[in-house]
Amino acid sequence: MEKGYHTKQTDLVMACLEANKERHMTAEEIYCWVKENGEFVGKATIYRKLATLEKQGVIQKFEGGDSACYQYVSQQEECKNHYHLRCVECNKLFHIESEQLDQLSSELKTQFDFCLDHGKSVLYGTCKKCAN
User: Fold this and answer.
1) Which helix (H) or strand (E) holds 130?
2) Distances (CA, A) of 90 to 30, 32, 85, 129
3) Structural domains in the chain, sorted by start
4) How many helices (H) and strands (E) in the chain?
5) What percent of the chain lies above the pLDDT cut of 90?
6) What's the rounded Cα separation, in Å, for the pair 63 and 70?
7) For residue range 88-106, what is the model confidence (pLDDT) as tens digits?
8) What is the side-by-side order of every strand in the sheet holding 122-125?
9) How high is the pLDDT of residue 61?
10) Given its phi and psi angles, is residue 37 left (phi above 0), alpha (psi -120 to 50 degrees) or beta?
11) What pLDDT score was predicted for residue 64?
12) Which long-range contacts (CB under 8 A, 24 or more apart) does 99-107 make?
């Protein structure tokens, strides 16, 4: 959370992300959530707050698709290795844990001295719902 300078807008963005911590949200979805909860915060302010919270490590930003997604990250979740699958049809982003991908990450480190950023690793494909 912001140290020193604390605003109501930051509280609203954080309330939204904490209430929806099991999913990824776009800035537009956050804007609508805040508005639906009786407050007005401009879109530019939402983007500024998201950038600040990302720098502080309070949230994670996921790129890809039409727009970036954001998600609240607790200290415990931050330490876990997890990967992401993005459906190219519905644009949904899924968190997964995988021993095989952990092994691949280890192999990349050993063979190529390359450290994979688990939080930004995204594999693209089609989810089960869209494949049917």
Assistant:
1) helix 128-131
2) 19, 20, 12, 9
3) 8-75 (1.10.10.10), 80-131 (3.30.1490.190)
4) 6, 5
5) 36
6) 9
7) 888 777 878 889 998 998 9
8) 93-96, 83-87, 122-125
9) 85
10) alpha
11) 64
12) 105/81
> Does the pLDDT value for residue 78 go beyond 50?
no
Q: Identify whether the C-beta of residue 15 lies closer than 8 Å to the C-beta of residue 72.
A: no
Higher pLDDT, 75 or 24: 24
- CA 3, distance to chain mean position in Å, is 22
Helix (H) or strand (E) holding 25: none
Closest CA to 25 of 88, 54, 68, 85: 68
Would you state the pLDDT for residue 76? 43
Of the candidates 82, 39, 84, the one whose C-alpha atom is nearest the C-alpha of residue 64 is: 84
Element of type H or E holding 87: strand 83-87
| pLDDT at position 74 | 66
User: What integer pLDDT is reported at residue 2 of this predicted model?
Assistant: 42
DSSP state string for 34-77: HHHTT----HHHHHHHHHHHHHTTSEEEE--SSS-EEEE--HHH
